[in-house]
Amino acid sequence: MIHKHYNQDYGFSYYIGRAQKWYLGLKVSKGYRESDLHGTVLLLWAYIMIQETCYPGEFKWKVIRP
To answer: Do 22 and 28 contact (CB within 8 A), yes or no?
Structure first.
């Protein structure tokens, strides 16, 4: 599922195929076919937590947990 959000510009989009247009009621982009900061942060965080769950202690990530 994470891979579906990956883009050719080496980032991730919150929505598949386009950047997130709105964040907390504010317009933040025009929704072009590109990565966005929110999607990149959330999906990299998810990917790292999955790695930590599957391979505990193997990677040297410093994961911030909510």
So the answer is: yes
